[in-house]
């Protein structure tokens, strides 16, 4: 039986936090640097925000195989049957690679049409299309890397992913300064395109490092078997449910950004900052969800229901503490945080008028993300799908439409997000209590 204690949880959670914040940190770095360029800073910031949201949407949807791989590997690891998924892992990674190539080919070609659907036009649209066509090159790099991270997490190790992600994030920061602003006499200033190239290079380095750990530290390989692994059906079914779930999640984010863009360039610039900070917080708190994912799958495989119940209580407590800590830091530096990303007074005014709402919902987010992670580890993808569909179309969308009708604009968007998170967190808590509260005895 696995021991559920502070040490074991944090052995997985802390590296997962560092690994998880690397991706949003790359986007935040891009936005902070782009928002302070001399040429069209508001338009460039708006374009980077729109593209960042779309990239996150696509990656979240197709990278759900990472979660499915993690769940299956952890369950077999807990049952001491890791040999049963040895041929599954390379097949899942190859599936991710082919899928990423298809997504790149389609979306890069239709980039202008895609961002027109976000209500982008003029310079914002041109910047967004050019920036995206470079960033999209990173799809195969990122999706293969995420699949490898899922294998690592299933083996109860988040340290390797942390090392890869941290290296990529630090490299991206340095390359951003070099390529966006340029180095006189050495590298020309490349503006928004420089930030895109910096991200792709960082993603390549992360992939190379992940492959090193995969070959040197795991019992798996990349040789494809002619026989489809019996677990492939379960992986694709779980991934399919999570695809639909994540598509609904990103529909909410798309709708929020489309409305903000329609309100004007200052609104979408402020929304870009708010959204990326929200995502940063989400990935930060998600470190404990990743621990819940890995440990939950292992405990289920070992049929340790008491450990599973204790895990839910302890991770809930730790994730809420993290959320409160983040709120405190941001409250102390409330005004200064906006200045990191923009010096434009209209943008900052909109940002500060809404930022408190992003902070207020963090404890609710923490509970939702934590139970998300545990349910993924348990393979409960169908229930997660249904909860997200209900939260998006019966909660978020009506709340946004009502708020927009009354002219609340950015406030309407974040009221809708709060309603969305309340539905998600309450539905997951109720389901978990009903299913596992009495099994643990």
UniProtKB/TrEMBL annotation:
Annotated membrane topology is: Multi-pass membrane protein
Segments passing through the bilayer:
12-33, 45-63, 93-120, 132-152, 164-183, 195-215, 235-256, 268-289, 315-334, 354-375, 387-406, 412-430
One Gene Ontology term of the biological-process aspect is: monoatomic ion transport
InterPro entries membership: MATE_fam (IPR002528), MATE_MdtK (IPR050222), MdtK-like (IPR048279)
Q: Which UniProt keywords apply?
A: Antiport, Cell membrane, Ion transport, Membrane, Transmembrane, Transmembrane helix, Transport
Position of the signal peptide: none
GO MF annotation, one: xenobiotic transmembrane transporter activity
Give the primary localization class. Answer: membrane
Q: Where, subcellularly, is it found?
A: Cell membrane
| UniProt GO cellular component terms | plasma membrane
Q: Could you identify this protein by its name? A: Multidrug-efflux transporter
